[in-house]
Here is the input.
Amino acid sequence: MQLTKNFYLSEFTHSQTASRFGLNNSPTDKVIDNLKLLCEKVLQPVRDNYQKPVIISSGYRNSAVNRAVGGSPRSQHQFGQAADFTIPSVDNWDLAQWIWKNLNYDQLILEFYTGGNSGWIHVGYSPRHLNQELTINKWGTFGGLKKY
Here is the structure.
């Protein structure tokens, strides 16, 4: 199922953890609607701006898959409202800064960034638009986007 011009449902539901543990990671219609919004409001604009593929490393995770990967019990991944991703050859700091300056979101997290394409971007989206920015590294979580 195509969610937007460049994104497909299968990119968000594929899970090595689900496969390994025999967990069904099929989304409900509400989750699919949320994934469409995430793509329309955040991921497709990112793709359009950079004109390069956006690689989803973690998308939808039902509650069983979320527990299996050690995700937060409040994770927006469980509702189809979050994705972790990178764009090959785009510095994740620059990518986070572009999202911060140009888009609405709930959470924008630069995770485990040490320079260049290291780590990944986590973005959560729902209509509430909290616009919270964080960085996470091996030492903990910090408010704001900080370059290391």
About this structure: Helices lie at 9-13, 16-21, 29-50, 63-68, 92-102. The beta strands are 2-4, 7-8, 55-58, 82-86, 107-111, 120-124, 132-137, 140-143.
